[in-house]
Structure formats: C-alpha cells, structure tokens
Amino acid sequence: xxxxxxxxxxxxxxxxxxxxxxxxxxxxxxxxxxxxxxxxxxxxxxxxxxxxxxxxxxxxxxxxxxxxxxxxxxxxxxxxxxxxxxxxxxxxxxxxxxxxxxxxxxxxxxxxxxxxxxxxxxxxxxxxxxxxxxxxxxxxxxxxxxxxxxxxxxxxxxxxxxxxxxxxxxxxxxxxxxxxxxxxxxxxxxxxxxxxxxxxxxxxxxxxxxxxxxxxxxxxxxxxxxxxxxxxxxxxxxxx
Length: 240
Hints:
By secondary structure, the chain is α+β, with helices and mostly antiparallel strands. It has 3 domains: 2-54, RNA-binding S4 domain (Structural Genomics Hypothetical 15.5 Kd Protein In mrcA-pckA Intergenic Region, Chain A, Roll); 63-124 and 212-237, Alpha-Beta Plaits; 129-207, Alpha-L RNA-binding motif (Alpha-Beta Plaits), CATH 3.30.70. Helices cover 20% and strands 30% of the residues. The chain has helices at 4-10, 16-24, 115-122, 142-150, 187-194, 225-232, and strands at residues 2-3, 28-30, 33-35, 41-42, 48-50, 53-54, 63-68, 96-97, 106-112, 130-136, 152-154, 157-159, 163-169, 174-180, 199-207, 210-211, 220-222. A hairpin with a 2-residue loop joins strand 5 and strand 6 (53-54). Helix 1 packs across helix 2. The longest helix has 9 residues, at 16-24. It starts with a strand and ends in an 8-residue tail after the last helix. The model has no long low-confidence stretch (mean pLDDT 92).
C-alpha cells in the first residue's frame, strides 16, 4: 500500500506537492470515489483518475538539467501562453520542473517525471544547496555582510545563507555570490530587499553539486545515472 499522492507523483503526472493540491481540490478519484483526504493509501489494483482521466503509471523516468533563460516560466504550462521551461525540452514524456526560478531569473533547474526525487530536492530538511550570483543596484556595505551571515528574517522565518562572498563592489553596483539551502519564492530578492538593495540580475549557477559550466543559457542536457543516484543521496541528509 502506498499513499495516493506518492503514487501520483511517482507516475510522473506531477510533483507530490501538486498531487496533494489535486487531492484536496477534489480532482482525484480512486475506484470511482472522490478522495479529498491526504494520506489515503492505494494498491496496484486500485483505479486512480485525475480530472476523470485514468492515471497512467510511467516507469520510464527522465531527468534534464536546464540553464533557464530570462522571460521563461518555471512551470509545465501557462495560462497566458508564455514560454515555459518544459517547452524548451525536446521530449514526448510528461515532465515538470523541480521548484521554481522567477520569470526574469536565469540558471539551473531540473526537470523530471520522478516525483520521489522532486520531493527530496524541494524539501528543506534534505539541505540541498543552491548557489546564486546576484547583481545589486548599489554599493554593498560591509556591515550588511555580517547581517546576512547572521540570518535575515523573512515572513517570520530566518534565512541563514550557508556562504556569502562579495565578488565585486563598485560605487554604483555590487555582485554577491550567495548559497542557500531553502527554496522559498523570491527568497534571494526578499533577503536583499530587506537590507535595502534591489536585485537587478539573478542567476543560479549551482544546484546541489551540479554546475552551469557546460551549459549556455537556454541549453540543457540529460543527467547521468551517476548524477541521479548522487541526487538521491540527499535523502540521507534529513535531520543530520
């Protein structure tokens, strides 16, 4: 017996978080009965439907690393018909991005149909590091570096970067390298905004151990089996 949201995620239909939203909104049926309770367990003989369409179990897992360009949505679809990260990947398999990058942010994002891996990489307890390069709109004050290292309170929760480096600090702008483990929406921009800076350019150059060195903006590649296994290794980080 497996939890319903895990079965949906493992099928490649969507991430576990999105699967939970589908269940709570009453869009999932099991053996013809609408399910709205998270934690409901199913087995291999149960018939699962989403939006009245049978769920297809997909054992063919795929993994892509994309260096996202600006003006691209980090989603599998968009109501305004804007280009999405999924549109940039040449595959017939239904995939979705793990986490999000803002519309105007560039950098690394993983796309897959593996819900289990998506859950590992998105959950803060697994401590997956992401490194960003942020260009700020003015000179960066040294006392603000100390504030960053001590943590910045965002929505009543502290964001404490793992590492912060000043790459360039001119009179009218600065470039900061910052590494964090969490993935709250707009977190980098909000951190610097709290200190009085606007982020005029943002790029995610590293995701876990993966780097953008071999990928130009807009390019992607398939992750190797070794890389996927190493990403799964983050599941051992919980509570460590």
